[in-house]
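Lab notebook, design round three. We kept the backbone fixed and only want residue identities now. Task for the bench partner: fill in a sequence for the structure below.
Input structure tokens:
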């Protein structure tokens, strides 16, 4: 029998605000997942009957974000990707891509995006009648090629309002303009934002459907209209937004470049950060280097290297989000066929993990879940395998082992994560 979560969870100060909100269901909640390919890549888990056109961005298969999305048992918005049958109509020539040279997340996650450089590019949709469609958000990408776009509501002014982030106010949506151009060279923003939201609310009566249109406005050659789709909900019914901002092949040093626009901009209630120790171990094998980066990104108060952008620091009068850390599992190459620890480059993996564990224990305030230990415990309890080395070998997304390729967890390995993470998030 697999051990319970208790031996592997170090609650620290806990997640009191998030857990209270889950129980009370009186407000919207935003959960951001951040980390590397263990959270981002979709090809290592199976899709089954999932329809990504009706799920949040990046939920293409039953990877960990989907398990968390289902496992929190909180009301959810409705999602309509641009290719959802019969919901959107487009004008002009459009393309769909997972990656593009203008995007710094290309190849690192399933960044499905529709775009058009056509001068007549436009997108049409209708907010159906009913309270479930009384609030909505356009989800779109920004990048260096983004154009200016204008929103229109059928019947003119007075039917829909848009939230203007700069003014922090609701304004008339008919005629509202938004820039999809991403400023580059700004610290911790990178050159692309995958899930930018333009929030809308219907002023017209709930029993009235409202036709909407977003179209390109002027712009130079090469500028593009960029869209993912739409999120909709009943504003009287609190909902959970799960935003997966993970990027494969990244270390903490690399993830920080997208901190502001991919994590902080969503004003999350909770950030679940899978510490990308596997990439850090490979690229920066000094354990003390890993300790310094974890310290700087999570707390920001390392002597001689203080910063104000760390995850646990509130800014601009806002309360800092709560943070939960995940230590990732060990991989096949960390072990020898004799089931001992294998050398990995210049450092043995347990030494690297031990250094980070010691920091987390010493700090003691931020909760963390030791999935490295939990994963090994699950494998040790599985009678089908004679060794950890055998159990961690690659098989297939739906294969009998715990990884798809010796590194990334497959369906079985992802289920181990979910069995430990979801109860922690629910406060059980």
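Proposed sequence:
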């Amino acid at each position: 029998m697999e051990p319970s979560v208790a031996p592997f969870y170090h609650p620290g100060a806990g997640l009191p605000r998030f857990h209270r909100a889950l129980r009370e269901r009186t407000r919207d909640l935003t959960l951001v997942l951040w980390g590397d390919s263990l959270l981002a890549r979709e090809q290592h888990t199976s899709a089954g009957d999932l329809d990504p056109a009706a799920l949040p961005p990046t939920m293409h298969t039953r990877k960990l974000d989907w398990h968390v999305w289902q496992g929190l048992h909180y009301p959810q918005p409705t999602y309509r990707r641009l290719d959802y049958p019969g919901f959107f109509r487009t004008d002009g020539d459009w393309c769909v891509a997972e990656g593009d040279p203008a995007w710094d997340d290309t190849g690192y996650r399933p960044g499905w995006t529709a775009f058009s450089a056509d001068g007549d590019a436009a997108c049409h949709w209708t907010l159906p009648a009913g309270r479930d469609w009384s609030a909505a958000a356009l989800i779109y990408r920004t990048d260096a090629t983004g154009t200016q776009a204008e929103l229109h509501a059928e019947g003119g002014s007075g039917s829909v309002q848009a939230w203007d982030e700069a003014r922090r106010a609701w304004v008339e949506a008919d005629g509202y303009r938004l820039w999809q151009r991403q400023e580059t060279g700004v610290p911790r923003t990178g050159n692309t934002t995958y899930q930018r939201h333009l929030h809308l609310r219907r002023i017209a009566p709930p029993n009235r459907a409202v036709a909407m249109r977003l179209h390109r406005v002027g712009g130079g050659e090469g500028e593009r209209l960029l869209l993912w789709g739409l999120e909709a909900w009943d504003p009287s019914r609190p909902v959970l937004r799960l935003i997966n901002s993970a990027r494969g092949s990244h270390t903490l040093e690399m993830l920080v470049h997208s901190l502001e626009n991919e994590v902080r901009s969503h004003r999350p209630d909770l950030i679940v950060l899978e510490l990308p120790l596997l990439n850090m171990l490979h690229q920066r094998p000094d354990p003390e280097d890993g300790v310094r980066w974890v310290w700087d990104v999570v707390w920001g108060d390392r002597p001689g290297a203080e910063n104000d952008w760390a995850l646990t620091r509130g800014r601009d009068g806002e309360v800092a989000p709560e943070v939960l850390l995940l230590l990732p599992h060990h991989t096949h190459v960390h072990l020898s066929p004799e089931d001992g620890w294998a050398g990995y480059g210049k450092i043995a993996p347990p030494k690297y993990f031990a250094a980070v564990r010691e920091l987390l224990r010493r700090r003691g305030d931020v909760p963390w879940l030791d999935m490295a230990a939990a994963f090994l415990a699950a494998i040790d309890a599985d009678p089908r395998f004679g060794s950890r080395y055998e159990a961690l070998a690659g098989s297939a997304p739906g294969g009998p082992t715990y990884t798809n390729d010796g590194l990334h967890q497959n369906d079985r390995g992802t289920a181990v994560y979910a069995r430990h993470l979801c109860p922690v998030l629910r406060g059980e």
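Keep this in mind before ordering anything: The chain is about 20% helix and 25% strand.
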